[in-house]
Amino acid sequence: LRCWSNIPFITMPLSRAHGKSFAHRSELKNAKRIVVKLGSAVVTRGDECGLALGRLASIVEQVSMLQNQGREMMIVTSGAVAFGKQRLRHEILLSQSVRQALHSGQSQLKDMAIPVLEARACAAAGQSGLMALYEAMFTQYSICAAQILVTNLDFHDEQKRRNLNGTLHELLRMNIVPIINTNDAVVPPPEPNSDLQGVNVISVKDNDSLAARLAVEMKTDLLIVLSDVEGLFDSPPGSDDAKLIDIFYPGDQQSVTFGTKSRVGMGGMEAKVKAALWALQGGTSVVIANGTHPKISGHVITDIVEGKKVGTFFSEVKPAGPTVEQQGEMARAGGRTLAALQPEQRAEIIYRLADLLTDQREEILLANKKDLEEAENKGRLALPLLKRLSLSTSKLNSLAIGLRQIAASSQDSVGRVIRRTRIAKDLDLEQVTVPIGVLLVIFESRPDCLPQVSALAIASGNGLLLKGGKEATHSNQILHHLTQEALSIHGIKDAVQLVNTREEVEDLCRLDKLIDLIIPRGSSQLVRNIQKAAKGIPVMGHSEGICHVYVDTDASVEKVTRIIRDSKCEYPAACNALETLLIHRDLLRTPLFDQIIDMLRVEQVKIHAGPKFASYLTFSPSEVKSLRTEYGDLECCIEVVDSAQEAVEHIHKYGSSHTDVIITENENTAEFFLQHVDSACVFWNASTRFSDGYRFGLGAEVGISTSRIHARGPVGIEGLLTTKWLLRGDNHVVSDFSEHGSMKYLHESLPLPQRNSN
């Protein structure tokens, strides 16, 4: 805890040796000293007369939050000219109206021309008002701000440089935010960009060069340049092929075309890039981003500091492999080639991968052993997650069997005709299955997921991006290598990509132009986070697995305990494990009920009582906090219902539409339950644990979907396909089918071609 002027604030343990910029966005959270440069387009209104007050207030709030975290914030601001122009225009209009009224003797105003206002005069009139506004805004957060006006001469005069440096350090030491601006009231006209060539020379011609010079002089960790564009594009923003550059490296400027400069201000994007590269060479990391977009301006600065993928990040360190954007493009191109293969060729790839899993067993298990040892040494994984992380010979054999099932069932998955219609004579329509496109599968702790999902993507002709947990790095790398080796037999190893960069999951979920479907495999928290972060990309999955087993009055004594034990105790961490046990009221205080309780106690299952169940007991177990709970452990809730109808209503109210079971010998009751429970999987006299792609005979699954879309329950090959329409005609036009046209619609259903019986 530090105190200046009797105001306490929390400091963060942030420190690093200056002299080398951050190599990755994820490191920006360690930035201690930060300069935020606000371009004229960010600070001013659209009419260029006056300030964008709402935007400015949001920026001040973000800067204040970072300052109160213990960071040292500085602002290089524009806006004095615009603020001064507003004030001077008001004064001129007022003066002209008074003179006109005196001259004409009338109060009616005529059209009055506003003279062109000289920028230096506007700056002189606006500086004090701009600073007063900053002071008022920062005061709301108990932060003091101080104004510093500089010119180019202040950096070329050694004594002035030392004075400026000392002043800034003293202000930062006292937890004061310096507000820095070029002294536009006296600054000379801008000169051509003849410098900016070396590390030691940069003239202060605009606030871009000022911010860069200041950042290097003050040994700043991060320079954030806010403008009115999202960042740096490979061609002028707005053009058809323009793509935002995520990371910009020195030397890349040769491949960039610069557009016109901003509507206001002295510099354009070219000036910003030159200033950014100069600062980067001086050891300061730089991000150029949009500070005007209404959807992101309220958190753009904090997002950048948190390492999120916002704007263009300047880095001196090029990654060894391709960027995730490049991987997405390779996956799409590879997926299209994959879809064009013959079904036998795709099956051949999967058979080859199955063989590699058994042939390379020792190498796979050795890599997995490294992951297990690292996880145990760091102590970062709970026992259930360690179990998921572990591979074994039996697991690899089961994987290979599942992959061969996928290969055998994939012969007619892509390009299968599911509807044929004769629209008119010689005009036939077909609906055929096609791949979805590029899938992003994010999974935790389960390296066996990688070959399963890869095989399903290959069988369905989809490109694939895989993002595994860092706890399974070694296992994932060798399994991905084997997947690419199998794909190489037909020259398409790029169709399946493993994302190894430091990409955050939230950033991957924003790549809506590269990814067509996101499938999360992991904890309910992971799924919820991805569903929240996905921007414009569908997410297939389930956020919770609250599975029920209802024991009816006509249940078989022999079946009840076996099914409940298997559903809860076989693998309690699974999403298809029993979480709530519903008991018919007539079974309370019967030998069957006692057997259920005794079995759960023997298996060391902790019981939570639902409200109705607790009301029947004198001494009950702990009452459940919520009937909508996924325990994921040896715990479950027991609740009482009066009928199968009430059981269905309970499941609809508290369930997650995953898997629900009835145990009964009454066929009518069972059929009522099967037809009325609206879940992805509904079973009669069978364990919830059967809800699985392998057990369903799908070979494997990419996940279990509880969404009400085309794919529900365990999702295999069929769930990774969509359709397209093929119309074959012969010089047909719609006008021929008009009231007086020569042709009539037939709309006849045609027989489908025979499916491959193999």
UniProtKB/TrEMBL annotation:
PROSITE patterns assigned to the protein according to its UniProt record, in alphabetical order: GLUTAMATE_5_KINASE, PROA
Q: Which GO terms describe its biological process?
A: L-proline biosynthetic process
Q: What is its EC number?
A: 1.2.1.41, 2.7.2.11
Keywords on record: Amino-acid biosynthesis, ATP-binding, Kinase, Mitochondrion, Multifunctional enzyme, NADP, Nucleotide-binding, Oxidoreductase, Proline biosynthesis, Transferase
Q: Does the keyword Metal-binding apply?
A: no
Q: Does the keyword Phosphoprotein apply?
A: no
Q: Domain Aspartate/glutamate/uridylate kinase, which positions?
A: 32-290
An example molecular function term from Gene Ontology annotations: glutamate 5-kinase activity
Give the primary localization class: mitochondrion
Give start and end of each Aldehyde dehydrogenase domain. 324-588
Task: Report the pathway entry.
Answer: Amino-acid biosynthesis; L-proline biosynthesis; L-glutamate 5-semialdehyde from L-glutamate: step 1/2; Amino-acid biosynthesis; L-proline biosynthesis; L-glutamate 5-semialdehyde from L-glutamate: step 2/2
The Swiss-Prot or TrEMBL record describes its family as follows: In the N-terminal section; belongs to the glutamate 5-kinase family.
Role played: Bifunctional enzyme that converts glutamate to glutamate 5-semialdehyde, an intermediate in the biosynthesis of proline, ornithine and arginine.
**Name of the protein this chain belongs to:** Delta-1-pyrroline-5-carboxylate synthase
Q: From which lineage does this chain's organism come?
A: Eukaryota, Metazoa, Chordata, Craniata, Vertebrata
What gene name is given for the protein in this entry?
Aldh18a1
